[in-house]
Write a structure and sequence with these properties.
single chain; 5-stranded antiparallel β-sheet; mainly beta
Length: about 140
Amino acid sequence: MALQFEAFHAGGLAPGWNLLVQGHSDSGEDRFEINFLSETGDIVFHIKPRFSSATMVANAFQGGRWGQEEASSVFPLVLGEPFEMEVSSDAEHFHVHAQEHKVLQFAHRHRPLAAITRVQVLSDHRLAQVELARKGLSWG
């Protein structure tokens, strides 16, 4: 799988950041994932659509091993069609939306949240756009 996007923010990417990925699922393989990483390189949040089983799976890789996988059968993505996924976070969870449907929420397993400093998007699909933005900015 090819690294299509990577961003780093020393102050942390959770809570309050929003990742938007738009692309095209042009093959039958499960070749797309999003990883949020800590300063130490642990994958504190891994989200992957599995087209083969029509499930969205989430997990964390910490201390050299994967934790308990969480899966959602809410799967609004269609093979061969354009897709949009959005990942946001608050103080308690990562939230995942696909095609504007809430797919799952994943409780933070890593503290402090400020140590979540990197995000990667890996894909063999064509990605049209990847956007990382801070949410909730108010200009008074």
